[in-house]
Write a structure and sequence with these properties.
alpha+beta; Jelly Rolls; Phage tail protein beta-alpha-beta fold; 13-stranded mixed sheet; three-stranded mixed sheet; elongated; transmembrane; Ferrdict_sens_TM; FecR domain-containing protein
Length: 329
């Protein structure tokens, strides 16, 4: 196997190179770091291949990755003259294969002229009725992205630092990596962690940013104020101030596992849970409502299914309009 003859598509279909891109095997990482350093003339091809691998690989389970790479290999006719014509379409094929598995929308940012190429991978869950997205990052960290949320991953992620940008809500399970800090920016609030599990909530309809620490330790900074959290503590950034307290750990674990419970919920409690769970602003239209005591359990159910059940039992009229939810009697 002469690596000097490899094109970008050859690299991306090489199992060892894929493991290097996903940082899943130390020997492969060491080999390719050394090989690329010794062969700078191949950097353009390896960079292109790494871009394609990360587009295809992020957000899939290991089994799904193996299956999708198998499909992609089948699409490329090795040795055929059509192989070279096919290469320019490969990024689009990779994206199409990925979107058949998980409904993640990515946006490729074009760098400005006269700047270093700093492209960003963006994962988006636009609709309130969409399922959550699980994103596997190159360092082995996992992000669960809630509905109505956007996660931006710079292309230099997992090099000297690991920096993400969030709009909405996400649960982070951070892989330990020495001398490579993990940070999340949400609005004007920054969270730094190293080998920990935490959640950040920063929706546009809420002026505050909330950080909940499940395990490990994080440092939260907003304006000039900084706080370090211990497990089961939260901090809420409001107008540059940090307000801390204790959160319901069981409820957060239910959120993590996709289990939504209503126990004798009043109308106001029902609205708060829907807003918390689905990341959607909920309005209760003023009026005289009959007392509500709603009970229900939903596991990984989309919003329309939950609303249909609530409406059937309570006779409430519930509608989604322009990305917000309205409850009427």
């Amino acid at each position: 196997m002469n690596l000097q003859l490899f094109t970008a598509e050859d690299f991306m279909l090489n199992d060892s190179f894929v493991r290097y891109c996903l940082q899943s095997n130390d020997e492969d990482v060491a080999f390719w770091n050394d090989w690329i350093a010794r062969n700078p003339h191949k950097k353009a091809e390896t960079d292109q291949a790494k871009e394609w691998v990360l587009r295809l690989g992020m957000g899939l389970t290991p089994d799904e990755k193996q299956e999708e790479f198998r499909k992609l290999r089948a699409l490329i006719e090795t040795g055929d003259s059509r192989r070279h014509r096919f290469s320019k379409y490969l990024p689009y094929v990779a994206a199409a294969v990925l979107l058949t598995c998980v409904a993640v929308t990515w946006i490729w940012k074009t760098p400005a002229h006269n700047t270093v190429a700093t492209s960003a991978m963006t994962y988006t869950t636009w609709k309130a009725d969409s399922v959550r997205k699980q994103v596997l990052l190159a360092d082995g960290s996992t992000v669960i992205l809630n509905r109505n949320s956007v996660l931006r991953v710079p292309d230099n992620y997992n090099q000297e630092e690991r920096h993400l940008i969030l709009e909405g809500e996400a649960w982070y399970e951070v892989a330990k990596k020495e001398n490579c800090p993990f940070t999340v920016t949400a609005g004007k609030t920054t969270v730094q962690a190293l080998g920990t599990v935490f959640k950040v909530r920063a929706y546009g309809f809420d002026s505050s940013v909330m950080v909940s620490l499940i395990s490990g330790k994080v440092r939260v900074q907003a304006a000039k104020e900084t706080k370090e959290l211990s497990p089961d503590q939260y901090v809420k950034a409001v107008n540059g101030q940090l307000l801390s307290g204790i959160f319901d750990a069981a409820r957060e674990q239910d959120w993590r596992n996709g289990k939504l419970y209503f126990k004798d919920a009043s109308l106001e409690e029902l609205a708060k849970l829907l807003e918390f769970w689905y990341g959607i602003k909920v309005h209760i239209t003023p009026g005289n409502y009959q007392p509500i005591h709603f009970n229900g359990e939903f596991v990984n159910k989309p919003l329309p299914a939950v609303l249909a059940s609530i409406s059937y039992i309570t006779n409430l009229k519930i509608a989604v309009s322009k990305g917000e939810l309205y409850i009427n009697h």
